[in-house]
Amino acid sequence: MRNINFSVHKFNVLNNNNDEQTLSHFNGENDFLDFLEKFFNDILKNIRKSSDNQGNTSILSLKVPGIKRNDDNRIISGYLDLGVSGKDFSIKDNETNNVNYLVKKNENLSRELYFMACIPRGKNFGIILLEKKEQYGLIKLFTDNINIFFSSQGYSNYKLKINQMPIEIFIKDFLKYGTLKEINCIKNHIPNDIKKQNSDIRLYDGKQINTFKIPEKNENYKDFIIKLYNSKFLDYEKINIDEDGYDEVTFLIRNKNQEKTFYIKDKDKIKSDMKLEIDDQEYSSIDEMYFTEFLKIINKFIFPNKEK
What we know:
- This protein is an alpha+beta fold and 308 residues long.
- The chain is 22% helix and 37% strand.
- The strands form four sheets. Strands 1, 2, 3, 4, 5, 8, 9, 10 and 18 form a nine-stranded antiparallel beta sheet that branches. The protein has a five-stranded antiparallel beta sheet with strand order 12-13-11-16-17, covered by helices on one side. It has a two-stranded antiparallel sheet with strand order 6-7.
- Residues 194-198 have low confidence and may be disordered.
């Protein structure tokens, strides 16, 4: 089995008036799918670098041999090669703590992250799925360099904007088909008596967290927690469970091979980060696994009826 953590981001191309453009002809003529392919081919040959005021340098490139374009689904996929340099550090053996290699300031610590970008025809937004590891400020680095590339290609009136994909696209499927695994009842203070039956109690950051593990195939708990989720609470209101009031309640749902944590009150904390648990023995290669699983996410949740 292999676990893959990834995030989902929405992107738009804007003109000088901040009007969102139709991506398949973002300037009235050119297809952003072609433009994005050209950008990725360029960073494969010409590494991008960005330095901060502390002497750190972030590096953006692509893993050789580069991207794959699929016109049937209007997607571009591949591995971003992200690195950071500017500090001396050592790589040591886990067992002996002996130094295996000294990394110099002009060398970079690199991570390869799989990505898949979808640019549907006739839409004013696209989607990029990114494998999550250490990302070294990837979104800003990627956005800045795309916008520089816009100008270098004669499109200075246009810019790329990337935001986290609204989580609503996943919620309905999770709540309907997922299995409730855990409920966390949170108090923003630690009471004198923290004993609570049928739960594990944790004290964290000045808060009391009661964790309830949910028995298998118990829909009563799920129905109850979904009813709470669909209710509206003001900031100062308590969430009442078993004659006790809580400042926040979170719950974990597993849907097939994905898990997500939901918040009853502060729904803005629900992230579009996802986790897949995949039987990699079903695939002939890692590339095939990434491509197939990421495409499933796009086709099921985001663009189920997209034009090709």
